[in-house]
Amino acid sequence: MRFIDLTHQLKNDIMVYPGDPLFKLKNINDTNDYSLFEIKGNLHTGTHIDAPYHYIANGKKVKNILLENLIGKANVFNLNLINHEKEINLEDIETLYKIGQKKYSNNHDLEKRLKKIIILKTSWCNNWGEKNYFTENPFISKEVANIFVENNISGVAIDTPSVDSYGENKIHKILLKNNIWIVENLTNMSKISEGICKAFFIPLNIDAEASFVRAFIEIQ
Hints:
It is built from four helices and twelve strands. The chain is an alpha/beta fold. A hairpin with a 6-residue loop joins strand 11 (about 195-205) and strand 12. The chain starts with a strand and ends with a strand.
């Protein structure tokens, strides 16, 4: 059994969303007997999970998300070779196929194949560290978000800083109000292929709207 880690390393001065507090990780012990690190920043730093409470009043916090909804079979959709603009539309998913397998022919065919977790591989993670990473990312269309809602998806994970375009939040609200958690800023996506895998998105047991998360998949 092997695993592929899809998580950015949390380290001092990691890049953060424009306007968010800077992330600081510092050893605050002055002696040589032991180390004691202090964290400053916010929970949306690096690879993280958004719980419904992030945008939905009285929505679930991270502590309320069941572990069984954070672990399970996932569809990995490879979008990096599709000729689309920044908005990820349903057509971008329906035309995906694995070598030797039948193309998705219609909505019903697509829906039958959806698992409880969706991983969207856009390859935007390759721009991590660039000035445009947070401002020009691919994002999910309302059409795609609604398909996920209709099919009772537990969570959506993506290798971009947001499921929305820069400065917007409508896709967050569609997903979160339907108790679909969101994981953003995945990395190492070149190491995974389109298909079905077992995925793990493990946050802190925290009374908050978001959490750092350890994201990884199991490969045979």
